[in-house]
Amino acid sequence: MSSNIDSGIGPGMDNSLTRSPNYKYWVFGALAIGVFASVVDHGSVNVALPTIAGHFQTDLPTIQWVVIIYALTIAALLLPMGRLSDLIGRKQVYIAGMVVLAAGAVLSGLSPSLEMLFPSRVLQGVGAAMTQGTGMAIMTSVFPANEKGRAIGLFMTMVGVGAVAGPALGGVVVDAFGWRVVFFLTLPLEVIGVAATAWVMHGWAEVRESSGASFDWLGAALSTGVLVALLMAMTTGNKAGWLSPPIVLTFGGAAVMLGGFIWWELRCSAPMLDLRLFKGQTFSLGVSAAFLTFLGSSAVLFLMPFYLQSVLGYSAKTAGFVVVPGALCMAVLGSVSGVLSDRFGWRIFTVGGLASSATGLFILSRVTETSSLWMVVPALMLMNSGMGIFYSPNSSSVMNAVGQAKYGVVSGFLNLVRNAANVTSIAVATIIVTTTMGSLGYEPSLEAVRGDAEGVGHAFTVGLRYSFMAMMGIILASMTISALQKGRVNQLEPAEASTLEESQAEA
Q1: Between the chain's N and C termini, which has fewer beta carbons within 10 Å?
Q2: 238 shares its domain with 330
Q3: DSSP 253-290
């Protein structure tokens, strides 16, 4: 059993392709098509938002829910879909997710009104939740234990390439054909991805939970409720007021549901998320470092367009190209660090990557109203390079601390941690910037930066520097946690090895 688990090759594989020593790369090729398509779709839709707002004659705050409702759906369903894939099969959930994603895209592109567009985006979010966690779980299943970093690195490379291509392709398509075509842009890739995955993985016998395990419906409902309430409050709190009754009640409801979720998961015989995993140092430190890293970096790409366009005076096109070198660095170095971490261990790359990100944030914390792009672009490259270097080894350490039967739910959980940290990062950075602007006598709003009030650019930049300093501190905290992490697979604690063996035995 142990050899089957490590290699991802099961006894049911009887065709020549699954017996090939390069089978893992065939699987990567099939999944890469779908991963690239889903990331391109997200980036291209963001670019189309102003055009969609104009078509439906609504304002940008309203039309932003096209993105928000999609992200909320993904975050809320990542854990349940990951758990479901562990029970009924990751290949089945992944392929079904691709089909749902494509159906949602068609309905979104054909939507005659916002009342139709919003539910269509929810459907797309359901499909994305089914594919995001399971795609990484499949990749880490078909690669052996000593190549988990390589697998995650390859996966993140496709995410990085898609993140660069999405806005660029979306801009071209919107200008040439209109916003509806953006939703149809990736349909051919999704069809090819479904066909390729079904063909390549035919006969693949994956490791699953024991047949007697049941789906934890109450745990799924509670986890979904917690995330929807928490992310809704984080998304709308700055506008509604953090101490307003609706926001306070929403946070309170999230806290109550979280307590109920923990209480239930510790008593459930087949929990949604096995909380015993947090007893292991490798798992708990890896997850904590991941959350802090995204908390301390995600807001940069949200705030930089305000700085580049409204303070430095660059066009939207130039502001878009400024982030491309950093995104490419993340894509390339994510793959490289994943491969090297399999050979030299995780710690040197997680700590080194975060040191690079902290350096980039320190440089960004020195920006002024007259800073040059020759200062901004290298700083963004340093920060994003560090993110790429960190993510693959850190995710590899977490995946190596659990049994293959739990890969689906743990992959979903890692994606959930990333999404939750992204939303929280933007909310915290916005609070710092707007509070600073208010203390200097200006309207405490990011929209005010787009106005012509004298001195508002300086006030925004001061707040920006404060937020980048705070983010650098968070990254340094994550670097400290990563320094405490085990170095490689054979250094797992006895408790972690025991949990891993139990998971394998259940399979």
Answers
A1: N
A2: no
A3: HHHHHHHHHHHHHTT-SS-SS-GGGGGSHHHHHHHHHH
DSSP string, 154-179: HHHHHHHHHHHHHHHHHHHHHHHH-T
Full DSSP string of 65-133 = HHHHHHHHHHHHHHHHHHHHHHHH-HHHHHHHHHHHHHHHHHHHHH-SSHHHHHHHHHHHHHHHHHHHH
CB atoms within 10 A of CB 492: 20
pLDDT tens digits for 105-115? 999 999 999 89
**pLDDT surpasses 60 at 1:** no
- What is the rounded average pLDDT of the residues 1-11? 38
> Does 198 lie in the same domain as 65?
yes
Taking 70 as the threshold, does the pLDDT of residue 2 lie above it?
no
Q: Is the pTM of this model over 0.90?
A: no
Out of 214, 230, 246, a domain closes at 214
Per-residue pLDDT tens over the stretch 7-49: 444 434 445 666 677 888 888 888 888 888 888 877 778 778 7
Same domain, 222 and 321: no
Last residue of a domain, one of 214, 232, 257: 214
Tens of pLDDT along 157-201? 887 788 777 777 777 888 788 889 888 888 888 899 899 988 888
Q: How far is CA 53 from the centre of its chain?
A: 26
Share of the chain above pLDDT 70, in %: 89
Amino acid at 129: A
Domain that holds residue 181: 1-214
Dist CA 72 CA 65 (whole Å): 10
Helix (H, G, I), strand (E, B) or coil at 335: helix
* 243 DSSP 8-state letter: T
Weakest-pLDDT range from 203-212, 252-261, 366-375, 412-421: 203-212
Residues 156 and 36 in one domain: yes
Specify the number of domains making up the chain: 3
What is the CATH classification number for the domain harbouring 70? 1.20.1250.20
Amino acid at 99: V
One-letter amino acid for residue 17 of the chain: L
Q: Which two tokens stand for residue 96?
A: 């079904």
What is the structure's pLDDT at 477? 96
| Together in a domain, 67 and 115 | yes
Instruction: Compute CA distances 295 → 156, 434, 469, whole Å.
Output: 19, 18, 13
**CB distance 193 to 65 below 8 Å:** no
